[in-house]
Amino acid sequence: MSGDALDTLVASLRREGVRITTARRLVLDALVRGTPHPTAEELLSSVRAMAPDVHASTVYRNLDELERLGVVVHTHLGHGPATYHLAADAHGHLVCEACGRALEAPPDLFGQLARGVKRRLGFTLHPYHFAVLGLCAGCAAQTPART
Amino acid sequence: MSGDALDTLVASLRREGVRITTARRLVLDALVRGTPHPTAEELLSSVRAMAPDVHASTVYRNLDELERLGVVVHTHLGHGPATYHLAADAHGHLVCEACGRALEAPPDLFGQLARGVKRRLGFTLHPYHFAVLGLCAGCAAQTPART
DNA sequence: CGCCTATTGCGAGCTGGTCGCAACAGCAGC
DNA sequence: GCTGCTGTTGCGACCAGCTCGCAATAGGCG
Fold first, then answer.
1. Domain definitions of chain A by residue range
2. What whole-number distance in Å separates Cα of residue B101 and Cα of residue A47?
3. How far is the CA of B39 from the C1' of C17 (A)?
4. In this model, does residue B130 exceed pLDDT 80?
5. Cα dihedral angle (B90, B118, B110, B2), rounded to 10 degrees?
6. Cβ-contact B91, B104 below 8 angstroms
7. Which end of chain B is more exposed for a tag (fewer CB within 10 A), N or C?
8. CATH top-level class of A2-77
9. 10-residue block means of pLDDT along chain A (147 residues)?
Protein backbone atom coordinates (compact mmCIF):
# COMPACT_ATOMS: atom_id res chain seq x y z
CA MET A 1 0.00 0.00 0.00
CA SER A 2 1.08 3.53 -0.68
CA GLY A 3 1.46 4.89 2.84
CA ASP A 4 3.94 2.13 3.22
CA ALA A 5 5.97 3.18 0.19
CA LEU A 6 6.17 6.67 1.59
CA ASP A 7 7.26 5.41 5.00
CA THR A 8 9.95 3.24 3.48
CA LEU A 9 11.24 6.16 1.48
CA VAL A 10 11.22 8.46 4.48
CA ALA A 11 12.96 5.90 6.64
CA SER A 12 15.72 5.38 4.13
CA LEU A 13 16.23 9.11 3.75
CA ARG A 14 16.38 9.53 7.48
CA ARG A 15 19.00 6.81 7.64
CA GLU A 16 21.07 8.88 5.25
CA GLY A 17 20.83 11.78 7.65
CA VAL A 18 18.28 13.73 5.65
CA ARG A 19 16.09 15.93 7.80
CA ILE A 20 12.40 15.16 7.26
CA THR A 21 10.28 18.29 7.36
CA THR A 22 6.56 18.55 6.80
CA ALA A 23 7.04 20.11 3.41
CA ARG A 24 9.49 17.46 2.34
CA ARG A 25 7.29 14.63 3.46
CA LEU A 26 4.33 16.13 1.64
CA VAL A 27 6.28 16.50 -1.57
CA LEU A 28 7.26 12.86 -1.40
CA ASP A 29 3.71 11.91 -0.56
CA ALA A 30 2.42 13.77 -3.60
CA LEU A 31 4.97 12.00 -5.77
CA VAL A 32 4.13 8.57 -4.39
CA ARG A 33 0.39 8.95 -4.55
CA GLY A 34 -0.39 11.64 -7.09
CA THR A 35 -0.95 11.61 -10.82
CA PRO A 36 1.74 10.24 -13.11
CA HIS A 37 3.67 13.26 -14.41
CA PRO A 38 3.27 16.11 -11.97
CA THR A 39 4.81 19.50 -12.58
CA ALA A 40 6.29 21.48 -9.71
CA GLU A 41 3.11 23.54 -9.58
CA GLU A 42 0.90 20.51 -9.38
CA LEU A 43 3.04 19.18 -6.58
CA LEU A 44 2.82 22.54 -4.87
CA SER A 45 -0.91 22.47 -4.91
CA SER A 46 -1.07 18.91 -3.60
CA VAL A 47 1.24 19.95 -0.82
CA ARG A 48 -0.83 23.02 -0.08
CA ALA A 49 -3.93 20.93 0.24
CA MET A 50 -2.38 19.61 3.44
CA ALA A 51 -0.23 22.56 4.46
CA PRO A 52 -1.44 25.78 2.87
CA ASP A 53 1.53 27.90 3.84
CA VAL A 54 4.20 25.98 1.98
CA HIS A 55 5.96 28.29 -0.43
CA ALA A 56 6.69 27.49 -4.05
CA SER A 57 10.40 27.95 -3.57
CA THR A 58 10.33 25.30 -0.85
CA VAL A 59 8.90 22.81 -3.29
CA TYR A 60 11.53 23.68 -5.88
CA ARG A 61 14.28 23.39 -3.33
CA ASN A 62 13.01 20.06 -2.09
CA LEU A 63 12.77 18.70 -5.58
CA ASP A 64 16.32 19.83 -6.28
CA GLU A 65 17.56 18.29 -3.09
CA LEU A 66 15.73 15.03 -3.64
CA GLU A 67 17.10 14.92 -7.13
CA ARG A 68 20.63 15.43 -5.81
CA LEU A 69 19.96 12.53 -3.45
CA GLY A 70 18.91 10.36 -6.35
CA VAL A 71 15.36 9.86 -5.10
CA VAL A 72 13.67 11.99 -7.70
CA VAL A 73 14.26 12.70 -11.36
CA HIS A 74 12.85 15.37 -13.60
CA THR A 75 11.95 15.17 -17.26
CA HIS A 76 10.97 17.67 -19.92
CA LEU A 77 7.97 16.48 -21.84
CA GLY A 78 7.78 19.49 -24.09
CA HIS A 79 7.95 23.25 -23.93
CA GLY A 80 6.19 23.67 -20.62
CA PRO A 81 7.37 23.12 -17.06
CA ALA A 82 9.42 20.10 -16.04
CA THR A 83 7.70 17.03 -14.66
CA TYR A 84 8.92 14.93 -11.76
CA HIS A 85 9.12 11.21 -11.00
CA LEU A 86 10.44 9.03 -8.30
CA ALA A 87 13.75 7.79 -9.60
CA ALA A 88 12.50 4.23 -9.14
CA ASP A 89 9.81 4.93 -11.75
CA ALA A 90 12.16 6.47 -14.32
CA HIS A 91 11.28 5.66 -17.91
CA GLY A 92 11.52 7.19 -21.34
CA HIS A 93 8.72 9.24 -22.84
CA LEU A 94 7.26 9.62 -26.27
CA VAL A 95 5.26 12.81 -26.52
CA CYS A 96 2.82 13.53 -29.31
CA GLU A 97 3.36 16.97 -30.81
CA ALA A 98 -0.23 17.18 -31.89
CA CYS A 99 -2.23 16.05 -28.87
CA GLY A 100 0.46 16.44 -26.23
CA ARG A 101 -0.10 13.08 -24.70
CA ALA A 102 2.90 11.33 -23.17
CA LEU A 103 3.39 7.61 -23.76
CA GLU A 104 5.74 5.69 -21.57
CA ALA A 105 8.36 4.11 -23.74
CA PRO A 106 8.73 0.36 -23.39
CA PRO A 107 11.88 -0.04 -21.32
CA ASP A 108 13.85 -2.00 -23.90
CA LEU A 109 13.19 0.56 -26.62
CA PHE A 110 16.20 2.67 -25.85
CA GLY A 111 18.42 -0.26 -24.97
CA GLN A 112 19.32 -0.97 -28.53
CA LEU A 113 19.95 2.67 -29.26
CA ALA A 114 22.05 2.97 -26.14
CA ARG A 115 24.21 0.03 -27.12
CA GLY A 116 24.70 1.36 -30.64
CA VAL A 117 25.72 4.78 -29.42
CA LYS A 118 28.05 3.31 -26.85
CA ARG A 119 29.79 1.08 -29.35
CA ARG A 120 30.09 3.64 -32.10
CA LEU A 121 30.73 6.83 -30.18
CA GLY A 122 31.64 5.74 -26.66
CA PHE A 123 28.66 7.78 -25.54
CA THR A 124 26.66 6.60 -22.52
CA LEU A 125 22.99 7.40 -22.99
CA HIS A 126 20.67 8.71 -20.28
CA PRO A 127 17.53 8.60 -22.32
CA TYR A 128 15.13 9.83 -19.66
CA HIS A 129 15.79 13.50 -19.21
CA PHE A 130 14.12 14.73 -22.38
CA ALA A 131 11.13 13.25 -24.08
CA VAL A 132 11.30 12.26 -27.70
CA LEU A 133 8.67 13.97 -29.80
CA GLY A 134 6.64 12.69 -32.67
CA LEU A 135 3.09 11.92 -33.68
CA CYS A 136 1.01 9.28 -31.98
CA ALA A 137 -0.93 6.79 -34.05
CA GLY A 138 -4.21 8.66 -33.75
CA CYS A 139 -2.88 12.07 -34.66
CA ALA A 140 -0.68 10.77 -37.47
CA ALA A 141 -3.81 9.37 -39.10
CA GLN A 142 -5.52 12.77 -39.04
CA THR A 143 -2.58 14.91 -40.03
CA PRO A 144 -2.56 16.08 -43.65
CA ALA A 145 0.80 14.39 -44.24
CA ARG A 146 3.15 17.35 -44.38
CA THR A 147 5.50 16.91 -47.35
CA MET B 1 30.18 29.55 -51.47
CA SER B 2 28.07 30.82 -48.67
CA GLY B 3 26.77 34.08 -50.08
CA ASP B 4 25.32 31.89 -52.74
CA ALA B 5 23.51 29.67 -50.25
CA LEU B 6 21.95 32.72 -48.70
CA ASP B 7 20.90 34.09 -52.07
CA THR B 8 19.33 30.81 -53.07
CA LEU B 9 17.41 30.70 -49.83
CA VAL B 10 16.27 34.30 -50.17
CA ALA B 11 15.22 33.76 -53.76
CA SER B 12 13.15 30.72 -52.90
CA LEU B 13 11.48 32.53 -50.02
CA ARG B 14 10.70 35.46 -52.25
CA ARG B 15 9.16 33.09 -54.75
CA GLU B 16 6.83 31.93 -51.99
CA GLY B 17 5.77 35.51 -51.47
CA VAL B 18 7.78 36.05 -48.28
CA ARG B 19 8.83 39.64 -47.74
CA ILE B 20 12.58 39.96 -47.35
CA THR B 21 13.50 42.59 -44.82
CA THR B 22 16.96 43.56 -43.64
CA ALA B 23 16.44 41.85 -40.31
CA ARG B 24 15.18 38.69 -41.92
CA ARG B 25 18.02 38.52 -44.37
CA LEU B 26 20.53 39.04 -41.58
CA VAL B 27 19.02 36.29 -39.45
CA LEU B 28 19.30 33.91 -42.38
CA ASP B 29 22.81 35.10 -43.06
CA ALA B 30 23.82 34.40 -39.46
CA LEU B 31 22.31 30.92 -39.72
CA VAL B 32 24.04 30.14 -42.99
CA ARG B 33 27.43 31.46 -42.04
CA GLY B 34 27.63 31.47 -38.25
CA THR B 35 28.65 28.90 -35.69
CA PRO B 36 26.88 25.54 -35.60
CA HIS B 37 24.25 25.80 -32.82
CA PRO B 38 23.36 29.44 -32.33
CA THR B 39 20.87 30.54 -29.71
CA ALA B 40 18.45 33.36 -30.43
CA GLU B 41 20.71 35.70 -28.50
CA GLU B 42 23.75 34.75 -30.48
CA LEU B 43 21.81 35.30 -33.65
CA LEU B 44 20.66 38.64 -32.34
CA SER B 45 24.19 39.77 -31.75
CA SER B 46 25.34 38.62 -35.18
CA VAL B 47 22.47 40.53 -36.65
CA ARG B 48 23.26 43.60 -34.60
CA ALA B 49 26.83 43.57 -35.82
CA MET B 50 25.37 44.62 -39.18
CA ALA B 51 22.21 46.44 -38.08
CA PRO B 52 22.50 47.63 -34.46
CA ASP B 53 18.88 48.65 -34.07
CA VAL B 54 17.31 45.26 -34.64
CA HIS B 55 15.24 44.33 -31.63
CA ALA B 56 15.31 40.96 -29.89
CA SER B 57 11.62 40.38 -30.47
CA THR B 58 12.19 40.80 -34.20
CA VAL B 59 14.69 37.98 -34.16
CA TYR B 60 12.30 35.76 -32.22
CA ARG B 61 9.48 36.57 -34.58
CA ASN B 62 11.61 35.88 -37.61
CA LEU B 63 12.76 32.58 -36.23
CA ASP B 64 9.16 31.61 -35.52
CA GLU B 65 8.08 32.62 -38.98
CA LEU B 66 10.97 30.83 -40.68
CA GLU B 67 10.18 27.77 -38.65
CA ARG B 68 6.55 27.92 -39.72
CA LEU B 69 7.81 28.11 -43.29
CA GLY B 70 9.90 25.03 -42.76
CA VAL B 71 13.21 26.78 -43.39
CA VAL B 72 14.45 26.72 -39.83
CA VAL B 73 14.17 24.29 -36.96
CA HIS B 74 14.89 24.72 -33.28
CA THR B 75 16.30 22.22 -30.84
CA HIS B 76 16.75 22.10 -27.09
CA LEU B 77 20.21 20.94 -26.23
CA GLY B 78 19.73 21.16 -22.50
CA HIS B 79 18.30 23.49 -19.91
CA GLY B 80 19.35 26.74 -21.52
CA PRO B 81 17.95 28.62 -24.49
CA ALA B 82 16.88 26.90 -27.68
CA THR B 83 19.29 26.59 -30.59
CA TYR B 84 18.44 27.05 -34.24
CA HIS B 85 19.39 25.30 -37.48
CA LEU B 86 18.51 25.54 -41.08
CA ALA B 87 16.00 22.76 -41.63
CA ALA B 88 18.27 21.38 -44.34
CA ASP B 89 20.90 20.72 -41.66
CA ALA B 90 18.54 19.03 -39.20
CA HIS B 91 20.12 16.21 -37.24
CA GLY B 92 19.86 14.56 -33.86
CA HIS B 93 22.03 15.62 -30.95
CA LEU B 94 23.76 13.79 -28.17
CA VAL B 95 24.63 16.20 -25.39
CA CYS B 96 27.09 15.38 -22.63
CA GLU B 97 25.66 16.19 -19.20
CA ALA B 98 29.12 16.68 -17.79
CA CYS B 99 30.91 18.86 -20.33
CA GLY B 100 27.87 20.14 -22.19
CA ARG B 101 29.28 19.42 -25.60
CA ALA B 102 26.83 18.51 -28.35
CA LEU B 103 27.67 15.67 -30.73
CA GLU B 104 25.78 15.34 -33.95
CA ALA B 105 24.14 11.97 -34.04
CA PRO B 106 24.95 9.84 -37.10
CA PRO B 107 21.84 10.11 -39.23
CA ASP B 108 21.02 6.41 -39.22
CA LEU B 109 21.16 6.18 -35.42
CA PHE B 110 17.57 7.04 -34.85
CA GLY B 111 16.33 5.22 -37.91
CA GLN B 112 16.21 1.89 -36.16
CA LEU B 113 14.56 3.36 -33.11
CA ALA B 114 12.04 5.14 -35.30
CA ARG B 115 11.14 1.95 -37.11
CA GLY B 116 10.76 0.04 -33.85
CA VAL B 117 8.51 2.66 -32.33
CA LYS B 118 6.43 2.87 -35.45
CA ARG B 119 5.92 -0.84 -35.67
CA ARG B 120 5.20 -1.40 -32.00
CA LEU B 121 3.27 1.72 -31.05
CA GLY B 122 2.30 3.31 -34.32
CA PHE B 123 4.21 6.34 -33.15
CA THR B 124 6.03 8.46 -35.74
CA LEU B 125 9.26 9.77 -34.29
CA HIS B 126 10.60 13.30 -34.81
CA PRO B 127 13.90 12.75 -33.08
CA TYR B 128 15.39 16.19 -33.63
CA HIS B 129 13.53 18.53 -31.36
CA PHE B 130 15.12 17.51 -28.08
CA ALA B 131 18.63 16.34 -27.58
CA VAL B 132 19.32 13.04 -25.91
CA LEU B 133 21.54 13.41 -22.86
CA GLY B 134 24.28 11.19 -21.59
CA LEU B 135 27.99 11.14 -20.94
CA CYS B 136 30.54 11.47 -23.68
CA ALA B 137 33.45 9.07 -23.81
CA GLY B 138 35.89 11.45 -22.15
CA CYS B 139 33.63 12.43 -19.27
CA ALA B 140 32.42 8.87 -18.67
CA ALA B 141 36.03 7.86 -18.14
CA GLN B 142 36.52 10.51 -15.46
CA THR B 143 33.19 10.11 -13.68
CA PRO B 144 33.30 8.15 -10.41
CA ALA B 145 30.80 5.60 -11.73
CA ARG B 146 27.64 6.49 -9.88
CA THR B 147 26.01 3.30 -8.64
C1' DC C 1 15.18 20.36 27.12
C1' DG C 2 18.51 22.87 24.48
C1' DC C 3 21.48 23.59 20.81
C1' DC C 4 23.16 23.43 16.19
C1' DT C 5 22.22 23.77 11.68
C1' DA C 6 19.36 22.52 7.83
C1' DT C 7 15.20 24.23 6.12
C1' DT C 8 11.54 27.47 5.49
C1' DG C 9 8.66 31.61 4.08
C1' DC C 10 9.05 35.55 1.75
C1' DG C 11 9.94 38.72 -1.79
C1' DA C 12 12.91 40.34 -5.21
C1' DG C 13 15.14 39.04 -9.28
C1' DC C 14 16.54 36.42 -13.41
C1' DT C 15 16.24 34.21 -18.06
C1' DG C 16 14.05 33.16 -22.09
C1' DG C 17 10.45 34.31 -24.57
C1' DT C 18 5.65 36.61 -26.03
C1' DC C 19 2.40 40.38 -27.12
C1' DG C 20 -0.07 44.77 -28.45
C1' DC C 21 0.58 48.83 -30.68
C1' DA C 22 1.78 52.58 -33.65
C1' DA C 23 5.35 53.69 -37.01
C1' DC C 24 7.74 51.90 -40.93
C1' DA C 25 9.33 49.61 -45.15
C1' DG C 26 8.81 45.77 -49.00
C1' DC C 27 7.27 45.37 -53.28
C1' DA C 28 3.33 45.11 -56.86
C1' DG C 29 1.15 48.03 -59.90
C1' DC C 30 1.06 51.91 -62.37
C1' DG D 1 9.93 56.62 -59.66
C1' DC D 2 5.87 57.10 -56.80
C1' DT D 3 1.89 55.19 -54.30
C1' DG D 4 -0.56 52.30 -51.48
C1' DC D 5 -1.50 48.04 -49.25
C1' DT D 6 -0.05 45.17 -45.79
C1' DG D 7 3.44 42.51 -43.62
C1' DT D 8 7.27 43.85 -40.39
C1' DT D 9 9.56 46.34 -37.05
C1' DG D 10 10.99 48.72 -32.67
C1' DC D 11 9.52 49.33 -28.37
C1' DG D 12 8.14 48.39 -23.84
C1' DA D 13 5.28 45.86 -20.87
C1' DC D 14 4.46 41.44 -19.61
C1' DC D 15 4.63 36.33 -18.73
C1' DA D 16 6.17 31.62 -17.03
C1' DG D 17 9.22 29.02 -14.69
C1' DC D 18 12.55 29.05 -11.77
C1' DT D 19 16.48 30.85 -8.39
C1' DC D 20 18.44 33.41 -4.54
C1' DG D 21 19.49 36.03 -0.13
C1' DC D 22 17.91 36.69 4.24
C1' DA D 23 16.11 36.40 8.77
C1' DA D 24 13.02 33.36 11.32
C1' DT D 25 11.88 28.52 12.30
C1' DA D 26 11.96 23.78 13.37
C1' DG D 27 14.30 18.87 13.03
C1' DG D 28 16.58 15.73 15.73
C1' DC D 29 20.89 14.49 18.37
C1' DG D 30 22.74 14.50 22.92
1. 2-77, 93-142
2. 37
3. 12
4. yes
5. -20
6. yes
7. C
8. mainly alpha
9. 81 95 97 95 97 97 97 95 94 92 86 89 92 91 61
**B44-68: per-residue pLDDT in tens?**
999 999 999 999 999 999 999 999 9
Does the CB of A138 sit below 7 A from strand D? no
- B49 burial level (CB within 10 Å; 0-12, 13-18, 19+): exposed
Residue B144 has a pLDDT of 58
Q: What fold is seen in the domain B2-75?
A: Arc Repressor Mutant, subunit A (1.10.10)
What's the CA gap between B29 and B33, in Å, rounded?
A: 6
What are the distances in angstroms from CA B65 to CA B58, B59, B60, B70, B122? 10, 10, 9, 9, 30
Quote the CA–CA distance of A35 and B82 in Å, as a whole number: 29
Q: How far apart are CA B45 and CA B34, in angstroms?
A: 11
The spacing between the Cα labelled CA in B22 and the C1' in C25, in angstroms, equals: 10
Can you identify the CATH homologous superfamily of domain B93-142?
Ferric-uptake regulator, C-terminal dimerisarion domain (3.30.1490.190)
Write out which nucleotides of chain D lie closer than 7 A to a protein Cβ.
7-13, 16-21, 26-29
| Beta-bridge partner residues of A132 | A94
Nucleotide nearest to B23 (CA to C1'): D9
Please state at what angle helix B2-15 crosses helix B22-33, rounded to 10 degrees: 140
Report which secondary-structure segment, H or E, holds A45.
helix A40-50
Contact B120 A106 (CB under 8 A): yes
Q: B41 and B55 in contact (C-beta within 8 Å)?
A: no
Mean pLDDT of B11-26: 96
